[in-house]
Amino acid sequence: MLSFGLTVLLDGVSYGMILFLISVGLTVTMGLMRVVNLAHGAFAMIGGYVAGYLTQRGWDFYLAVLAAAAVTAVIGAAAERTIYRPLYRKGELAQVLLTVGFVFVATGAVSEVFGAFPYPVVLPAYLTRPIDIGFREYPAYRLFQIASGAVIALVLWLLLDNSLYGARLRAAVDNPRMARAVGINVSLLFTGTFIIGCGLAGLGGALGAGILSLEPAYALKYVVLFLVVVIVGGEGSFEGSFVAAMALGIIDTLGKYFVAQAAPYLLYTAVFALLLWRPKGLVPPRSLA
Amino acid sequence: MARLLAIITAATVLSWAGRAPADVAKVGLLADFTGAFATWGPQFQKGVEAYQALHGKTVKGLGDKPHEIQFIYRDTASQGPDKARQLAQELVLHDHVRFLCGLDLSPHAMALADISKEAKVPVVIMNAATSSITRMSPYFVRVSQTVPQDVAPLGPWAVAHGIKRVYTIVSDYAPGYDAEAYFTQTFKAAGGAIVGSARTPQQETNFSAYMERVLEAKPDALYMFQPAGSPSVAFVRAYVERGLKAAGIKLLGGGETQELFLPNFTDDIIGTVTSFHYTETNTRPANLELREQVKKMFGDKAVPDIATLAAWDGTRLIQEAVAALGTDADGLKYIDFIKGKKFDSPRGPVEIDAVERDIIQNVYIRQVEKRDGRLVNIDIDEVKMVKDPWKIDHPQKPD
Hints:
The structure holds 2 protein chains of 2 kinds.
Chain A: H1 2-32, H2 40-56, H3 61-84, H4 92-114, E1 130-132, E2 137-139, H5 140-162, H6 164-174, H7 176-181, H8 186-207, H9 218-221, H10 223-233, H11 238-258, H12 263-277
Antiparallel strand pairs in A: 1-2
Helix pairs in contact in A: 1-5, 1-8, 1-10, 1-11, 2-3, 2-4, 2-8, 3-8, 5-6, 10-11, 11-12
Chain B: H1 2-19, E1 24-31, H2 40-55, E2 58-60, E3 66-75, H3 81-93, E4 99-102, H4 106-110, H5 113-119, E5 123-125, E6 140-142, H6 147-151, H7 154-160, E7 165-171, H8 174-189, E8 193-200, H9 208-217, E9 221-225, H10 230-241, E10 250-253, E11 273-276, H11 285-298, H12 306-325, H13 331-338, E12 342-345, E13 348-352, E14 359-371, E15 374-386, H14 389-393
Parallel strand pairs in B: 1-3, 1-4, 4-5, 5-6, 7-8, 7-9, 9-10, 10-11
Antiparallel strand pairs in B: 2-3, 11-14, 12-13, 13-14, 14-15
């Protein structure tokens, strides 16, 4: 029983970590910068395809993942300058329409270049096998996901809560005019933050490709999950995204194990209940609370 | 002067139109070329084009009269049965097609039952695998397969080869239920025991929790029915990652291991046993002809799948029917011609059931192996001339 409990916990946590890795970028763009960015899944998808393309051509997996994050960040930078910037002051409808359009363009492009079939990221052999973790054999890939997710969460937490950059970003989001008045370059800060968010999405897409399979429909299929994580966590709250991603990962895994038939409904029922309980999210950011 | 030119032009165009071969039979092919099911359309088209490139677009009718068979492709865009019905109506009313064909998904085929009867247009179904479809219209004929037909031979084969306890996991949609029902029924009848079963959401890619359940049940084999694409790839990955393969639990399936999809899998898929109506590596002359033609036209990596196969056979039947009956015969005459036809398909010998208008064919038990560095299916057994078992279980009521 203990062994089973630990297994389900590990499964849930590894799934949650992937959700967190990808969603945390959306927390930045949607939560902090208030852009309804439905194209976030497209950035994750691009990262995944870059990693897949490179590993299939013999690149080292870790190098390919970093390259995926970098390429996605560059595309994010270009998109921010050309597509997103004019949107910051427009209403939400304009943001929804334009970012959904971006999703369709990305889906069509990926399907044209890479085909409609699922696209694999080639893992190093030792990550594809189960390894002995004391009480059972467990997939090494999942442990790797948990570890990388934990490291990135820690780095982000240090960066946002304990660095000057984090303090400036929070100030700029809460009150842009005041931030400008004290000499913060808000526009540059937002561009930089948006790029980081896209890079994280690409990283998550590459690392998570073993659970969230790469295919042209990726961008639309999973964006709902990412939005749910951000909303349930509390818009703009990193701690919240982390807690929400873990909770949803574990609830989904438990559901599949015990009530396989009802699992899809269970997840959304849980989201419904969580939002009724805490409409502003599990851990609303301090500035909003 | 300008006026004169216009008249001359008009006269030229008219005389050209008059000279064009009037005797063309148009065939409307409906399939998903875009959207979630976008892989079907192009694979059908390859089958049609390969057949016509090799055997010609024009057939000789009575008295050596040439009839041209012209395919018109329409994209149902993964938008469901309403779209299929609308496009079929346009093809019948506007393009005056003599045949409809294609139809990757069952709901699309079902949506054409009324149109086919009203317009008396024969419909050659090239995939849509729900058993009951051919009973919905006397104008329907199927050259593909049914789910029970592919699945039913696997249960007895498993028992005969030492597999006594099986866990089934199928995708949560109608073909999944059919597969579950027919595997379970035939496996139990042969003396096997089902030790557990699950149905997974249609687009599932996170199978870890289901695999845990299977590990606990310790079956001899795991039977899967998953849609081609990311679900089946993720399924096999979870099966290996969770140590099921290492624990000696065999993997059984069906269409998941088509050669077209095998490059998406890792070598972990080796050893998977599936039952299916087409093994791409078979060396029958008709299959070598198909494979060679497809590679010649669409590149070395192009592989015929069941869509290409059915389109190839379907085109053949349509062209033979037009050759025999001309371009404006009554719809039911064409169907009567196709009924009872026996021929050598690239998959092996086939027969169109004269009563049910459905295909009777061999079902092959294959195993995934690596040959010359490529993953392929290799036949290890076959069951000859299988009729759709659902039709045997559900005898037709006399009118």
